[in-house]
Batch of 4 targets.
Target 1
Amino acid sequence: MPHEHEAGKAPRTPTPEEVRVVGLVPLLEPYFRKGVVREQMPERLREAMESNGLTPRHGAVLPQLLAGPPLSVSELAGRLHISLSTASELVGALSRAGIVERNEDPANRRRTLVSLAAPYRPLLETFLARRLEPLLRALDGLSPADRSGFLAGLEAWAAEVQK
């Protein structure tokens, strides 16, 4: 792999296009600042997160549960590119906070499914609608092929930084 860094060797020099990408990353930083995220979060959700010591890593689980049916912990781990034990710890903390529920899978009693607790679903929907506005506007301007490339790039980057 041309982009893989080998121990003891100097890292490769990025191309001009890669330097442009790196230059854009700090421009996104204000979007992820704790204060900005905190002020967009509905009060009840914010209080639940803060009083239980939950972090952005815990918060990353929640959108996965909003879009579809309940998921197993292993499915969450795969979607988030994290280990099964990390996913289990995140779900456990969210469950103790009452934000998610764990229930037996009716089709397989040995499997546990995770879902959003009903009182938190509308709060998370409101929060995500606020948070997603800039991204959705940007995606609206992209062709389907560019959207796919954007998603593939973000997934690859997320997977690399979590190794």
Note: The first strand starts at residue 71 and ends at 72.
Target 2
Amino acid sequence: MSTAVHVILDSSAMVAAGRGNSLASRLIHRAHAESGWFLYATTCALVEADRERKGTAEHIAALPGFTFLELDLPAALAVAHGHDDWAVAHTLYAAQPTADRPEGSVVATTATSLWEPHPVRTLGLNP
């Protein structure tokens, strides 16, 4: 029996996907084509990615297989008390273990050093 794989794209991974990063593309394809692979994007990271590269939000929103994690009240409270960067704080909050994701989620990123101080597993998308 295989374990489900839950991956959250941070804003850098979303921008990379929009630019045609091959590793990001493979990850997106795998999540769409294989059962047990789940991709997530937080709304704060989606906004940050679009600020960095216009059109990224629409591109990511049009891709199959994504679940978009809203900035609901618990997430907003975590962001308010967390990191100054809302995209990082929301992604970090979303990556923590939950009832649906008991082992938490892996953060896909091209900025692995950004996540080093945080208790989160990362998947580097730099070729």
Note: The beta strands are 5-9, 37-42, 66-69, 106-109, 122-124.
Target 3
Amino acid sequence: MQRVLIGIDRLSTLVGQTFAWTVVILTAVIVYDVTARRFFAAPTTWAFDTSYMLYGTLFMMAGAYALSRNGHVRGDFLYRNFSPALQAKFDLVLYGLFFFPAIFAFMISGWHFSVQSWAQNEQSSMSPNGPIIWPFKFLIPIVGLLLLLQGVVEVVRCVQCIRTGAWPQRLSDVEELEKQILAAAEAKGAEALAAEMARGGEAAVVRAASQVGASQDPTPRHPHS
């Protein structure tokens, strides 16, 4: 079971990290349009449509990835003080009441929305050249399916946590070096870490951070669980 859960985590990660590259394309489009408009008095007719479709794609395709990393907004000022089992029960109720009904509605309405757009060969009315936008709208049911899969994974984790009293392992990204350094300073003491950094330079910082990271749970879900 754990292998299946981690496998879906990997799928969400692959999709999210792949589509994260759209931010590079989006940046290039905006820079080109601003440069052409400002310095050559030649604004484009396609940059606006391209930019909102790229941003929408980035935002939607990162949804399941954010869910797999437990990265969506939550009222942590109360939640973090709950025991893991209570957190899991809380999550389970909210998934049943809000998440799955919303996702099913999102998928169904998104499918009809995209099919209707395809049947009409819908084109944008926001710019003179009017590019087709139905391929962009077909992302809606695809995103819904990815979120549904990741939501099922999270529900299974909730059930496992209720049974065992601890959150099961999940796939996680490498933490930023700054966070690892802070953890190393807390574990070793700021003065000891500073002395080690003075002796070994940057390599010593990375080594100390790696040692602390290896000694901790590689996939924590909640800092106070």
Note: The radius of gyration is 23 Å.
Target 4
Amino acid sequence: MQQALVQEAHAAGLRGARAAEAVRAVQFSVVGHVLLERNRERAPAQRPDEPGLWGGDDRGIDDPAPARALATPPYTEKVFSAAMRAMVDGLLGVPDSPRSGGC
């Protein structure tokens, strides 16, 4: 995996320590995402669950949109794509992308 990622980092113009940093960042993020996703699938039901935690009153939040969004289960593919896009853009020094969207 690391060798393939080094080739991708080189293709993106990264060299040396920056290439190694990018490889490890992507590797750790991917593995972490997979582990978290599997844990959510296998873990016993949590109390309060996400709707219970974020539902009801505004919880003192000035902007209720995040609370509404967090009250629903995550769409893990969208979360993964947003995280990878943000991380890779940051590692490559890409300015904020217009395609960046919420999770």
Note: The chain has five helices and no strands.
